[in-house]
Amino acid sequence: MSHTVGQLSGFAGVTVRTLHHYDRTGLLSPSERSPAGYRLYTDADLARLQQILFYRELGFSLDEIAAILDDPGASALDQLRARHKQLSAQIARLRRLVEVAERAMEVERTGVRLTPGERFEVFGEIGFDLSYATEADLKWRHSEGHQRSMASAAAHSKEDWQRLMAEAADWREELRAAFDAGEPADGVRAMELAERHRQHIARWFTPCPYEMHLRIAEDFATDARAFALLVPPSQQRPGLAGYLHRAVRANAERAVAR
Length: 258
Prior knowledge:
By secondary structure, this protein is mostly helical. It is 71% helix and 3% strand. It has a three-stranded antiparallel beta sheet with strand order 1-3-2.
C-alpha cells in the first residue's frame, strides 16, 4: 500500500517539510512515484520512518541514524547502550539542577528579609551571592548549626543587621590592620581576632564550636564567594583569606591545648 507525503505526515506526526528534508539527505526516500511524479511511500518506508523518529527521540543525529539503519555492520545495541549512558547522566544532572533550583527558592524565602534598597543600605559592598548561598545550603542543610543560622538570619530586623554589620566592619578593619602589620597568623593578636569572629557567629547566628569555625574558615580560604561575604573584594588583600584560616586553626588548637 502506498501513501502520499501528506498522508505519511499525518500518520507520523511530522511536517511535510521534514519528510522532504529526509528525502534530500537520503535518510528516507519514497520507494515509489505516482505517474505525475509525486512521492509515494510504502509500508516499509513508514516502518523506516518510525525507526528514524524513535532514534531522533533518543537524541541521535541524522547522520548517526543513517549509519545505524544503512550499515549492516553497525551495532544498534551498542549505540543504544551508549545513548542510555548519556541519557542517564543527563537525567542525574537535571535532577541535581531541580534540587538546586528548589533550594535556591528556599534560600530566598528564608533568608534576609530586607528590600533591595535596605540590603544596599545595610550591606553596602557585601553582596549576596545566591549561587554560593544555595551550594552552602545544599552542603550543610542537614546540619543543626546551619538550620539555626538560617532561622536567625530570617528573624533579624533591619536594626539587627545594622548592628551586626557595624560590628563586622570594625572587626574587618582590625583584621586588615593585623595582616598589613605582619602580625603572625598564630600570634596573640590574630588568634584574638579569630576568636572574636567565632563569638560574632555565635552571637548573631548559631553556636559555633571550634570545629565548625574551622570548617567555615576553610570555605573562606577555598571559595572567593564565601570570603566576599565577609570581606568585600575592594577591601581584600592577597593572602588575607588564608591568613584568617591559619588564625582560626591556631585559635582552635590553642583552645584544645588549654
